[in-house]
């Protein structure tokens, strides 16, 4: 398992990590496999149940796909502008 440590340990939340299951780095779509994992302590444990964390992961992956689309569109726009400037 590959993970990135994001925050210092805090009293209530613990730590938050991005986790990629083993072997998913070589699959076609890493975004579909990345997860946010956190060791949540009482009393926040009642607010962030496993079901709620699954929903957060779904939203997180959607936002990652959206950001990737933005970066890809910007890259194409830069290439087109560069090509148009060369032709002039």
Automatic annotation (TrEMBL):
Residues 5-79 form the Gamma tubulin complex component C-terminal domain. It is found in: Cytoplasm, Cytoskeleton. Pfam families: GCP_C_terminal. GO terms for cellular component: microtubule. Keywords: Cytoplasm, Cytoskeleton, Microtubule. The keyword Cytoplasm applies. GO terms for molecular function: gamma-tubulin binding. It comes from the Eukaryota. The keyword Cytoplasm applies. Belongs to the TUBGCP family. This is GCP_C_terminal domain-containing protein.
């Amino acid at each position: 398992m590959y993970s990135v440590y994001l925050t210092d340990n805090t009293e209530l939340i613990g730590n938050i990590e991005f986790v990629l299951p083993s072997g998913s780095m070589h699959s076609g779509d890493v975004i579909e496999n990345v997860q946010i994992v956190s060791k949540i302590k009482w009393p926040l444990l009642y607010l962030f149940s496993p079901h709620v964390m699954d929903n957060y992961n779904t939203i997180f992956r959607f936002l990652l796909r959206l950001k990737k689309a933005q970066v890809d569109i910007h890259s194409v726009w830069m290439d087109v502008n560069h090509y148009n400037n060369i032709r002039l």
